[in-house]
Amino acid sequence: MLSEGASRVPERTAETAESDTSTGPSWLRYDIGIEPTLSPESIAIIDGVISYLCSVVEQGAPRAEWRVGYNRIKSYIWQNHPVLVHDNQEVPLADLVPGLARGQASGRLPSDDDRLARMAAAAIKQLNGNDEETVVEDEPLIEVEDLREDALCGRELEVSLREDIANEYSREVDRLVRTLAKEDGITGVVREDREVLLVATPSWDTAQLQEWLTRYIETNIRN
Predict the structure, then answer these.
(1) Exposure winner among 48, 91, 106, 183, fewest CB in 10 A?
(2) Higher confidence at residue 108 or residue 21?
(3) What angle (nearest 5°) sits at the alpha carbon of residue 132, between those of residues 177 and 216?
(4) Calpha distance 73→6 (Å, rounded)
(5) Residue 207: strand, helix, or coil
(6) pTM, whole model, 2 decimals?
(7) Spatial distance between the Cα atoms of 147 and 199, rounded to a whole number of angstroms
């Protein structure tokens, strides 16, 4: 996160003067009021880190825009906070850094050199989510591979589900597994993990399974 960790983010002491939140940075004014942990020097460092993080994310998600967080629900956590927004995805960049810095300053959290990079990457991915879906649509719904004969299960076919199908329609995939297991020529179906199915069959080939799965998904999941 901060390259030199807690050594550059000192805590407040009993002698530290109270910071003036009315003239402080926006993340401090709209956060918790009086800063309980960080010294004024640390607040200045963190303000610079936040500016850097915002610049990186803005470049990585160029279609995102800044706005003031608002929701009619009074308990909305980002009310009046600056948030970067794209297609209903909100990222409160200014609020991501201070809590982590407080943990590092107090010694509760480790100072990881790549933490800031990982935070930026996650924010960019979230803000570009809908754009990434367009790319995902170009990928096949499923891929079927013949694992050949297994000593215990017989012939096995491995099915790889596209990520959005496996994650957004997980319950529907479970129903798919139960339905497929009842088909003639299928002796077993196991959902090995969220995106992978193992199908035991003495008679089906990859083309037949691919056709069945594609028709089922188009009819029962994506319809």
Answers:
(1) 48
(2) 108
(3) 25
(4) 37
(5) helix
(6) 0.49
(7) 10
Distance, in Å, from the CA atom of 41 to the CA atom of 43, rounded to the nearest integer, reads 5
For 54, 94, 119, 177, the CA distances from 114, given in Å and listed in that order, are 16, 18, 9, 40
Please answer whether residues 126 and 89 qualify as being in contact, where contact means their C-beta atoms are separated by less than 8 angstroms: yes
Q: What's the CA gap between 200 and 198, in Å, rounded?
A: 7
Q: Which two tokens stand for residue 190?
A: 């196991």
Indicate the length of the chain as a whole number: 223
For residues 168, 171, 174 and 178, what is the CA-based torsion angle, rounded to 10 degrees?
-140
Confirm if 98 and 38 have CB atoms less than 8 A apart. Answer: yes
CB atoms within 10 A of CB 198: 16
Compare 96 and 27 and report the one with higher pLDDT.
96
Greater model confidence, 46 or 129: 46
Q: What amino acid occupies position 12?
A: R
Single-letter amino acid code for the residue at 8? R
Q: Which two tokens stand for residue 80?
A: 């009046």
Q: Which tokens in the block code for residue 13?
A: 């002491």
Alpha-helical regions (H) of 153-205: 163-168, 170-181
Average pLDDT score, the chain: 77
Q: Are 105 and 6 in contact (CB under 8 A)?
A: yes
Rounded CA-CA distance 37/98 in Å is 10
